[in-house]
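FAQ

Q: What does a record look like?
A: Structure on top, sequence underneath. For example:
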């Protein structure tokens, strides 16, 4: 298991009859130019720690290396945290390990990578361990040096912030409170705001002595003889205004849901205006 030197991009193999070396150069060049695919193994696996896949090319300090013979095993993830893969020269080969702190690493435009002054480099991947969960991400903006945008195997994008000039299209938005649907809004709706709505719960039509269920802020109407009274829907708290139809007097009361109450006892029918307040 080793990550061995292929050569520099601009120099052909010393032995021009070494066709295997020439092919390696060409393959490495085309992979680099074509944006080499996933270097990590276990890319879609969320429980196993990754290795560096055999045949992967790594550019380090202007020299190209290839993972030869078999996958390159990284150190074990001993504890939960966010890990980065560090590259260091070890003789004629590369040695890779994990780090959790990017302090001192800056973008090197010559070598097109995130490098430390000691010559070590960080690859554009992030491995996050949380209990049994091990997730791998491809960093899309390594040159930023932090606050990375990361893409998971299933296309999930994670980033520190998002600025969009056009429209965002999606089924729901989850800010940590579950998947929520969004609807048109033209006012603030905080607890401190003076909010105006056409209605909170619309009125519920009724024409007999049994009022139907209504929501908070809604109201309905019931009518019956004074002896009948009215039984309120179960649950909630109501304000009920009772008025003898045609006689001009009545009463008002605040009652709990399910209450049966005869407001007025007298001639004629009584109309009940029922409003739910809680």
């Amino acid at each position: 298991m080793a990550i061995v030197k292929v050569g520099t991009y601009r120099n052909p193999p010393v032995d021009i009859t070494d066709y295997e070396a020439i092919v390696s150069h060409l393959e490495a060049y085309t992979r680099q130019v074509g944006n080499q695919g996933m270097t990590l193994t276990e890319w879609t696996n969320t429980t196993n720690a990754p290795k560096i896949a055999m045949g992967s090319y790594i550019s380090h300090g202007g020299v190209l290396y290839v993972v030869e013979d078999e996958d390159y095993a990284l150190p074990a993830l001993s504890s939960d945290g966010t890990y980065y893969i560090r590259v260091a020269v070890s003789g004629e080969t590369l040695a890779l390990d994990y780090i959790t702190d990017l302090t001192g690493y800056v973008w090197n435009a010559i070598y097109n990578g995130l490098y430390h002054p000691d010559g070590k480099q960080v690859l554009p991947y992030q491995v996050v361990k949380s209990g049994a969960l091990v997730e791998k991400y491809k960093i899309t903006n390594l040159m930023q040096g932090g606050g990375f945008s990361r893409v998971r195997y299933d296309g999930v994008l994670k980033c520190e912030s998002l600025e969009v000039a056009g429209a965002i299209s999606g089924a729901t938005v989850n800010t940590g409170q579950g998947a929520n649907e969004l609807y048109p809004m033209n006012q603030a709706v905080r607890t401190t705001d003076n909010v105006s709505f056409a209605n909170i719960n619309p009125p519920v039509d009724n024409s007999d002595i049994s009022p139907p269920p209504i929501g908070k802020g809604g109201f309905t109407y019931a009518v019956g003889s004074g002896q009948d009274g009215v039984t309120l829907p179960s649950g909630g708290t109501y304000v009920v205004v009772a008025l003898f139809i045609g006689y001009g007097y009545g009463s008002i009361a605040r009652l709990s849901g399910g209450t049966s109450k005869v407001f007025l006892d007298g001639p004629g029918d009584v109309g009940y205006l029922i409003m739910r307040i809680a």
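Q: Is there anything notable about this one?
A: The mean pLDDT is 86.
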